[in-house]
Amino acid sequence: MELTITQPDDWHLHLRDGSLLEAVLPHSAKHFGRAIVMPNLKPPITTTSAAVAYRESILKAIPKDSNFTPLMSLYLTDVTTPDEIKLAKKSGLVYGVKLYPAGATTNSQDGVTDLFGNCFSVLEEMAEQNSPLLVHGEVTDSNVDIFDREKVFIETILMPLIQRLPQLKVVMEHITTADAVKFVESCKEGYVAATVTPQHLLLNRNALFQGGLQPHNYCLPVLKREIHRQAIVSAVTSGSKRFFLGTDSAPHDRRKKECSCGCAGIYNSPVALSLYAKVFEEAGALDKLEAFTSFNGPDFYGLPRNKSKIKLRKAPWKVPDYLSFPFGDIVPMFAGETLEWEALPC
Question: Which string of b and e fits 332-345 if b means at least 16 CB within 10 Å?
């Protein structure tokens, strides 16, 4: 079996910088036309000038035979100004502003401590400029159970935000719960959408512990119960325009995953399209795969769909146990396992 689809985009991608950027970028550039590049570097990408400089470093690392285009984002802080939002929009290179609640995930220590108290004028300017807010949707209150942090964030932050600024475009990134599905579906279409990762479609929280602690299945937001996984699969395979591809591919050196305090993040760029095809095939919804991977994202962002094509072929292949680079190894998602679909350039 073989499918030819419009080249997909990745609407949530971590490329890092330096030697790690050079190592992982070819895997995304091989399959995806564009990607929203996350800004949580050290130091974070908080200004338009920093985003432009980061974009230049990405462009230098793109393989010569690739048409990959990085779409930049800013890192929202308590001191971001409305003027910075205007500059970002004027640049034509920044496509969203990322909300990291301070302490929520990797390199989020400079994130927002009080969204409504410190950032509301910025959010109003974003609505005015039609600049999407890209949300890591978890509260960081230590009194809230880690498996409930997305649900509580929706109730205490997102719902009030949408009520106060209904014209603001919001992408709830890497959703993990039935609560998130229900929230996105309850909002006005075209204003609130969600990205969905391969890991949250295929794995539940058992994958963290089966056969011992599995550090390479640890990500944030953390994997949830099976009922939540099923709800997300139903949502994305339904044909709804509100959900689109965002891998949240997050590479870390193997030594930073397999240690006493391991980093959160799953590296899935080499296998993402194979895994999305698996999900849609198992749901009997291969006819809806192209819209999820290639149409819904650009339509939401107001960008043209890609004109190039790629092929997905039903052909077993084994995922490498690890990928070696001069700085160390990266373990990909489903390392050592055999996948049934492979993605090929057209």
Answer: bbbbeeebebbbee
* Residues sharing a CB contact under 8 Å with residue 299, sequence separation 6 or more, in sequence order: 241, 305
Q: What is the pLDDT of residues 34-73, one digit of tens each?
A: 999 999 999 999 999 999 999 999 999 999 999 999 999 9
d(CA 96, CA 118): 18
Compute the distance between CA of residue 234 and CA of residue 192 in angstroms, rounded to an integer: 18
Q: Which distant-in-sequence residues (6+ apart) come within 8 Å of 121 by Cβ?
A: 82
Amino acid at 108: S
- Residue showing tokens 């339904």: 238
Q: Is 198 in a helix, a strand, or coil?
A: helix
Q: Which residues are catalytic?
A: 12, 14, 98, 136, 174, 248
Range of the domain at 316: 2-344
Q: Are 260 and 201 in contact (CB under 8 A)?
A: no
pLDDT tens digits, one per residue of 132-148: 999 999 999 999 999 99
CA distances 89 to 72, 116, 188, 317, Å, are 11, 22, 23, 43
> Residue 105's closest CA among 155, 38, 168, 154?
38
Here the tokens at position 281 are: 């095939």
Give the Cα separation of 63 and 345 in Å (integer): 14
Radius of gyration, alpha carbons of the chain:
19
pLDDT score at 107: 86
Q: Which of 120, 127, 219, 112 is nearest to 175 (CA)?
A: 219
Give residue 60's identity as a one-letter amino acid code.
Answer: K
pLDDT in tens, 245-283: 999 999 999 999 999 999 999 999 999 999 999 999 999
- For the record, the structure tokens of 24 come out as 């992982």
- Report the CATH number at residue 111: 3.20.20.140
Strand order in the sheet with 338-345: 2-6, 309-318, 338-345
3-state secondary structure of 139: coil
Q: For residues 285 and 304, give the distance between their C-alpha atoms in angstroms, rounded to a whole number.
A: 24
Query: Count of domains in the chain?
Result: 1
Residue with token string 């996350």: 38
